[in-house]
Specification:
The chain is mostly helical. The chain contains two helices and no strands. It has helices at residues 20-36, 44-69. Helix 1 (20-36) packs antiparallel against helix 2. The relative contact order is 0.14.
């Protein structure tokens, strides 16, 4: 059975990705969700279940991408004088 390019690549779609790569993967999941509704070899209930799964993954990846986009909190600079200084 041909995949028709709707399967993810294990090297390009690494779950440890960050930033723009996460957004690109989320877009691929959204496209897969649209494609899942068109695949007639599954029943309507299974097509809907697959569609919802792909959308949930896309939303999760987009949330992770938003987290990566935020700058980390900066700590207030405290100048330590060392353990023995008084």
């Amino acid at each position: 059975m041909r995949s028709d390019n709707n399967q993810l690549d294990i090297f390009k779609h690494d779950p440890r990705l960050q930033g723009p790569a996460l957004r690109k993967l989320a877009k691929a999941y959204r496209e897969s969700a649209d494609e899942a509704l068109k695949q007639r070899q599954f029943t309507a209930a299974i097509r809907q279940e697959r569609h919802e799964h792909y959308l949930a993954e896309a939303k999760r990846l987009e949330a992770d991408a938003r987290k990566c986009g935020r700058s980390p909190r900066r700590r207030r600079a405290t100048h330590s004088k060392g353990a023995t200084a008084r």
